[in-house]
Design goal:
39 helices, eight-stranded parallel beta barrel, globular, six-stranded mixed β-sheet, 12% strand
Length: 953
């Protein structure tokens, strides 16, 4: 690759599942087309990530991407982007951050880092002078972000820059974020949960590999031209107070939402100056700047509260609004404290504040039960109550567990009319810019590839002077002749320009201070390209369409995103600066679609538009029947635009529907307790189970002798008494032993046998075919393949399974890969009846042709839930099916809190629900501690309060 200014010229790919790290040199044409940041990120993720990837699964790719100006002498050049599929919205996700990490990644030798797979144990990635290694993060897991950063800096040297997650990210809170510099946040899209799902605690970088600058004299000229503007006017205000300089003004003119978007100034928030810059300056300890800034809008504050001294970053405008005006809180110390909690633990302050405001309105309207509140009074303006609720969200404790995934998930779980108070667009909580004051934000919240955002277009609309927008080719004459087209043209051009600014690694404050021209000027000077405004706008549109195509492929049509009615002024506010204003979004959106040449129903860009942008050969929009596995949130599982089957055909094999795997109660001598097992088995059967699965799910079969397995199988067959079919798992590491157990199962009357492949060593494709074919030849009852790659390290291909299925007695399989896309391929290509092995994906799998579900942990506790879901699906009641699916996921969420000890947690829940003493496990897991049992008891009682016993809606 020819040397380019601004770029190191290396991308790092990390597969955590395989522990593989590989470097790539990107082509110059790719870089020039997509610049960097989320432009380059979107292009790479579209190509490398399979359609329908689970955002919290191994196929999602998490990228840390710099731009060509990051870490160069260009002013305000300290930014980088984090990209990935958002678990919060189910579509394209990105987050932007400043500080020093972005330049640090480039100095360490890479323009970007892309992480796929899931590590078995917590790890962190160290990149030092171009050398990357994965290190154990066992000692970091559970630490907050500041503790993590300090430990890594102490371990690897003072110049180390760190991006990390806190406990909420580890616990997969969907509003968690990624923190650098002790509180600089890549805040939006829930990408902290993606990092947590990969068990990647941190990325630590250090190095000295500064990128080349092709025209240093021109960069010096531009700096000399722009520095005076950075130190006067708006630049001076930002240096003095940060974005808090604008809080009072924004509130008084009606731009800042109040009381969860339902209130107004001054009636509902008269004390606007309480959260303004001068009020914060009383606590200022020192000022600081991001790398290469020139403005220095940051500051550290220090204050005392409850006998403790706190030190943290000064809250930004968005944070002051989210914890302040959204919640009607004018207690500045409470707002600072909540900001400190979020920075320390890694929560998006906008989403956290919006979720607290949602909770306060729910409290006002009697949505919560007293048990859920646990003594908390969430009254408007109560900073202490809000701070306590935030702590519970960090810990996923009590009501905080419901709220840690944001307002959409919370409203879906709570129901009870709470959706009316859930202010979001596509799952993303809205920022502090009111479309009733600035109309373009209404369009932005709906149409952005990352819905509900404010940093990607709306700020560059009709608010700016026509003579300024003329630099982007916006016709100033249209303001009077065709104001609707003028607004749409300003929005489209401004969005394209801002995409290049973001992708290049610049701060958006540059617009206020340096105008539009500085972006193409700096890109040209640093890279050596002849890069003018026309190419800048074309590249920006290409980036927008690339991100948009990613969303379309995942089933996200922005035209179907609903901006909450109250945000658009329906009904209009009764008083205040925007009283009586209602935004008619439809007309503005239609004008925008005509300008960008997107279909008014599908939002698909025209072929001509794609060809002009060089994207026509890239588009492959064959999304799976279900967009992604929402194993922790099911808010978009039923997309109305897709045709899901509403009838259920019984599978071809004799066994179908819900197959429950009961857990086994053992005494201290590892003997099956029949006095417990018999009534427990009765309860499971009476709950409506279609069949029983013997010796599966709990892993205990793997440590039993063959004689123990035979005894358990005989006992279950006898106690079941022919009331339901019984399938027996017979898999071992040796084919002859598997056949021995299978023949025994046939002799005692089993209806079928299941088998995993050998799990200590890995057979090749031919070996797998031989193993299952010889097993089927040895008996005269059906054989089902059990695919659980997390345990066996074997992942059957559809082609191999189709070959295995040629034997007439091999009729079905259980797929526990937890990937809906793969599941659909298995249904379509193998000829087998395919059963879903994860209750979290039961509904999604039924919609793509599942024969049923083999239920383990949840089915063992609440067998009636999967039965109820299947019944609802059979009769075409998808709303009811989705409600039950949410309940299944709520149980799984509880169990995930005991990830390393799930077996004991399940047995404890069975005892809590049924009263059956399930005893010890025989694998050897450490029993739950007293504290863990108490936490499990609280969580389980909460489920019962919500109506889980009996599976009601």
């Amino acid at each position: 690759m020819v040397e380019l200014g601004g770029y190191v010229g290396r991308l790092l790919h990390v597969d955590l599942g395989r522990g593989e790290l590989t470097a790539e040199r990107p082509d110059e044409a790719l870089l020039r087309s997509f610049i960097g940041g989320y432009g380059l990120g979107a292009r790479i993720l579209y190509e490398c990530m399979p359609a329908g990837a689970d955002p919290l699964g191994p196929d999602n790719i998490l990228g840390f991407v710099t731009g060509p100006l990051t870490g160069t002498p260009a002013l305000l050049s300290g930014r980088f982007c984090v990209v990935g599929k958002s678990p919060l919205t189910g579509t394209w996700g990105d987050a932007n951050s400043g500080g020093k990490f972005g330049p640090g990644l480039k100095f360490a030798g890479y323009d970007a880092l892309f992480v796929s797979g899931v590590s078995e144990e917590p790890v962190y990635l160290l990149i030092e002078e171009g050398q990357a290694t994965l290190r154990s993060a066992e000692d970091l897991w559970g630490l907050d972000c500041i503790e993590t950063e300090e430990m890594l800096k102490e371990r690897h040297g003072k110049g180390t820059e760190v991006a990390c997650i806190g406990p909420p990210g580890e616990r997969l809170a969907l509003i968690s974020c990624i923190i650098t510099d002790r509180g600089r946040a890549a805040g939006r899209s829930g990408l902290g949960a993606v990092m947590g799902s990969k068990r990647l605690k941190a990325v630590a970088v250090l190095g000295t590999q500064k990128p080349a600058v092709m025209n240093q004299e021109r960069v010096k000229e531009l700096r000399a031209e722009h520095l005076p503007a950075l130190r006067s006017g708006a630049g001076e205000a930002l240096h003095t107070y940060g974005t808090a300089a604008f809080t009072q003004m924004q509130t008084t003119i009606g731009r800042t939402p109040i009381k969860n978007w339902a209130g107004w100034y001054p009636d509902d928030f008269p004390n606007a100056q309480a959260l303004d810059g001068p009020a914060l300056s009383r606590f200022e300890k020192r000022k600081y700047a991001c790398w290469g800034c020139g403005v220095g809008c940051g500051a550290e504050l220090e204050w005392q509260e409850d006998g403790r001294t706190f030190r943290d970053h000064r809250p930004e405008y968005e944070t002051l609004a989210a914890f302040g005006t959204y919640c009607a809180i004018d207690d500045l110390r409470a707002v600072m404290r909540m900001n400190e909690i979020c920075n320390r633990n890694g929560l998006d302050t906008i989403s956290a504040g919006a979720t607290i405001a949602f909770s306060m309105e729910c409290y006002e309207n009697g949505v919560f039960t007293q048990d859920e509140l646990d003594g908390l009074k969430l009254e408007w303006g109560d900073g202490r109550a809000a701070t306590e609720l935030l702590r519970r969200m960090v810990e996923r404790r009590g009501l905080g567990d419901v709220l840690a995934d944001g307002v959409r998930c919370a409203s879906e779980r709570l129901d009870r009319g709470s959706e009316a108070y859930a202010i979001h667009a596509g799952g993303q909580e809205l920022p502090a810019h009111d479309p009733r004051h600035a109309s373009a934000y209404g369009l932005l919240y709906q149409m952005s590839p990352t819905p509900g955002r404010h940093t990607q277009g709306g700020m560059l609309s009709d608010e700016l002077p026509p003579e300024m927008l003329a630099a982007l080719g916006v016709d100033p004459n249209l303001q009077d002749k065709d104001p609707l087209r003028y607004k749409a043209q300003a929005y489209a051009a401004g969005t394209a320009w801002l995409n290049v600014l973001n992708a290049a690694g610049l701060c958006q404050m540059g617009l206020l201070l340096m105008g539009f021209d500085h972006v193409p000027q700096y890109v040209a000077a640093v890279t050596g390209w002849e890069f003018d405004m026309a190419e800048c706008l074309e590249a920006g549109e290409r980036i927008e369409v690339m991100r948009h195509l990613f969303g379309l492929r995942e089933g996200h049509n922005p035209l179907e995103v609903e901006v909450p009615s109250r945000v658009l002024g329906r009904p209009p506010l009764e008083s205040g600066p925007t009283a009586g204003v209602t935004l008619e979004l439809d007309e503005l959106r239609s004008a925008y679609l005509r300008i960008v040449d997107w279909d008014p129903k599908t939002a698909m860009p025209s072929g001509a538009r794609l060809a002009r942008l060089g994207l026509d050969g890239l588009v492959t929009l064959e999304a799976p029947a279900y967009g992604y596995d929402e194993s922790l949130t099911v808010s978009a599982m039923l997309h109305e635009r897709r045709e899901a089957p509403t009838t259920y055909d019984r599978p071809s094999s004799a066994i179908g529907g819900v197959i429950v795997a009961p857990l086994l109660p053992f005494d201290e001598k590892k003997r099956l307790r029949e006095d417990v097992f018999s009534p427990y088995l009765d309860a499971v059967i009476e709950a409506g189970s279609d069949a029983l699965y013997c010796l599966g799910t709990s892993q205990e079969f793997a440590v039993m002798t063959l004689e123990q397995r035979r005894t358990v199988a005989e006992t279950m067959m006898r106690l079941a008494g022919k009331r339901v079919p019984v399938v027996i798992h017979v898999g071992t590491n040796a084919l002859d032993q598997t056949i021995e157990l299978a023949r025994h199962a046939e002799d005692i009357g089993a209806d079928a046998v299941y088998s995993v492949p050998p799990y200590y060593f890995t057979l090749d494709d031919r070996g797998l075919i031989t193993y299952f074919t010889e097993l089927a030849e040895a008996i005269n009852i059906p054989v089902h393949v059990y695919d659980i790659p997390s345990m066996t390290k074997v992942k059957f291909s559809p082609a191999v399974l189709a070959e295995i299925a040629k034997h007439p007695r091999i009729t079905a399989m259980k797929d526990s890969s937890e990937n809906v896309t793969r599941f659909q391929l298995l249904v379509e290509q193998t000829g087998l009846d395919v059963y879903q092995g994860s209750e979290a994906l039961q509904l999604a799998s039924l919609s793509v042709g599942a024969a049923g579900c083999v239920c383990g942990a949840v089915g063992a506790i609440f067998p009636e839930l999967p039965v109820k879901l299947l019944d609802a699906f059979k009769r075409g009641d998808l709303d009811e099916a989705l409600k039950v699916q949410r309940k299944l996921i709520s149980v799984l969420r509880l169990l995930l809190g005991f990830e390393k000890n799930v077996l004991h947690a399940v047995k404890a829940c069975i005892q809590l629900r049924w009263g059956f003493e399930m005893g010890r496990d025989i694998v050897g897991y450490t029993p739950l501690s007293k504290e863990e049992l108490e936490r499990l008891d609280r969580g389980f009682k909460k489920l019962l309060v919500e109506g889980f016993a009996g599976g009601g809606s």
